[in-house]
Amino acid sequence: MADRNRIVVLIDMDCFYVQCEQRLESDKWLKPCVVAQYNNWQGGGIIAVNYEARAYGIKRGMMGDQAKKLCPELHIFRVPDENGKAKLDKYRDASAEVFQVISDFIEEQEKSMDLNNLVILERASVDEAFLDLTKLIDAKPLMLPELEDLTNFNTKLEFNNQSLNDWFDQFEHHNIDNRQQQDNIRLIMASMFVGQLRQQIFEQTEFKCSAGISHNKMLSKLACGLNKPNAQTILPMIAVSSLFKRIDIGDVRLLGGKLGNQIKTIFNIQTMYQLSQVNRFTLNEKFDNKTAEWLNDLANGLDNEPVSDRRLTKSIGCGKNFRGKMALCKQSDVNQWINSLLKELYERMMKDKEMNQRLARLMIVGYYTAGKGHCHRSIPIDITLGDYPPAERIASDIMRQLFSKPLIIIQDPIQNLSLAATKFLDTTKAIMDSTAKIEKFFQKIDRITFIGQQQQQQPKSSKNHSTINQPPIQSKSPIKKSIQMVGKKSPMKNKSNNNNKSSTTVQSNTLDRYLQQYQRQSTSKTNNDDKIDLNDPHVRQINREMNQLLDSFFFSKILCMLENGTLKI
Ligand code: CTP
Ligand code: CA
Ligand code: CA
């Protein structure tokens, strides 16, 4: 879809962490306030500044003591600390509240129009959301709202200093059959929706926010920042080239980091307008074709990145800096911090699982050292039957990934550690995957029996192989049979809870006994004729998996699932 046909909005909470704190101490509203992390060093590092405090020149990144000098009456809220780590739950919970209001409002609006899936909502950060309102607006008749309603929502226009009032006049006095005017009216209609949504957010959470209303993500994000706080800004396509004359390349979404700096240095330019003057061939000389095309589009106000339907975060993460002397130089310290970070993360993962019915499949461990810079490792999370493994197991998997051998002293100390659980999977899908895994496992068990039979018929000539006893040879896996039996004969459904409990125990015991016997047999050396070649990689693999399954109480879970019908073998 051509860019100006889309209507894309960014909602961003104003000085979010400060508002979260002010809501809890309402006498602090309208007073200069900041949120600072770490109490004991120069008044703590400031991570959020409200607009009253910004008026004194206080900025994020300053130390609390320094800010107090600029504004003696400044109130400093402290981020709570747990085990030496900032506890940010309060802000995350407040964020979930805001997103709930946004979701409910969208649902309500769609319901009133008797239509579904008109709005795409993408959670962009803890306090930001993109909305694609194209379908919603196009489902309504093209109509100008009352100017007064819009000004009540503190709506601003970004277009050569033109007032919203003057802009409105031209629509009222001219016919609106030209496409550009129609697009502008669509933006105005979207502003009504956004104003009402912001009002809902305020009424239900007490939080104020700002919004940008334009045609793509880059422009709406830019527009949102133009009149903060508590305002919404319309940015029509026609206003882009003049606006870009005063927009620093680094202030544009995705150009804030290395890439933006690189562009400024290479072409010796500063603004987006200057970037639009760099011709395509010159861009191509310095960047690959795709990047050059993308930069050229951005410089002309075009950005075709879609708003994706994502109401949840892509990952759940936490981290900790260890500056100067605090840097971790012993493996045992790293172990302790991995456990501590994971404790926090695991609680959040469990909460997220309950609330959003999803499970993370991958843990990304990041660390920073002076010698290696930023590094990360990915560790799969072994989710079985819709649940996470115990935190201790994840922690030991992480440690194994980080250190291949025990290290007392780490030569290149770790200055930052972070963990992020990601690659989420629907719990139902996770259960289905696990079921498939179990079935595959049983197929292997069947094969192991088959291998045993073959070996019985054609005993190996070599006597040097270590051998193990195999379970009684049957045409079908005995474990699979007993599970089927348990499943079929399960008397659970019609019994009371107490009875359920005792029956489960009886069945678990039967199965456990079998499994223990199997494990004993598979690990003891005997001279029995029924032998399996222990060195056979296939057998070793099965043994490994078997032990893993036993380890994780896999079978007691299978039993539960057979009983409640989620698992069918
Ligand atoms: N935040 C942070 N560290 C950063 C960036 C942001 O802890 N490097 C937190 C801030 O405390 C902030 C929240 O994330 O309150 C949202 O960040 P952002 O939207 O960038 O700033 P706000 O404080 O909300 O201020 P603004 O009104 O400018 O959006
Ligand atoms: Ca914000
Ligand atoms: Ca933000």
Using the coordinates above, name the CATH class of the largest domain. Answer: Alpha Beta
Averaged pLDDT: 83
Instruction: Classify the helix fraction into a percent range.
Output: 40-55%
What's the N-to-C terminus distance?
47 Å
Tell me the number of helical segments per DSSP (H or I, 4 or more residues long): 21
Ligand kinds: cytidine-5'-triphosphate, calcium ion
Output the radius of gyration.
31 Å
**What would CATH call the homologous superfamily of the largest domain?**
Reverse transcriptase/Diguanylate cyclase domain
What does the main sheet amount to? Answer: 6 strands, mixed
Overall shape: globular
Question: Can you list the strand order of the major beta sheet?
Answer: 7-8-1-10-11-9
* Overall tally of domains: 4
Low-confidence stretches: 449-511, 525-531
Task: Give the helix/strand layout.
Elements lengths: L7 E6 L2 H9 L8 E5 L7 E5 L1 H4 L9 H7 L4 E4 L2 E2 L2 E2 L2 H24 L7 E6 L2 E5 L1 H5 L8 H6 L2 E3 L6 H10 L5 H27 L3 E6 L2 H8 L7 E3 L5 H5 L13 H10 L4 H6 L2 H7 L2 H11 L16 E6 L6 E3 H26 L1 E12 L3 E8 L10 H12 L6 E18 H31 L9 E3 L8 H12 L7 H27 L7 E3 L3 H15 L2 H11 L5
Parallel strand pairs: 2-4, 9-11, 10-11
Antiparallel strand pairs: 1-8, 1-10, 2-3, 5-6, 7-8, 12-16, 13-16, 14-15, 14-16, 17-18
Organism: Dermatophagoides pteronyssinus
Main location: nucleus
Keywords: DNA damage, DNA repair, Metal-binding, Nucleus, Transferase
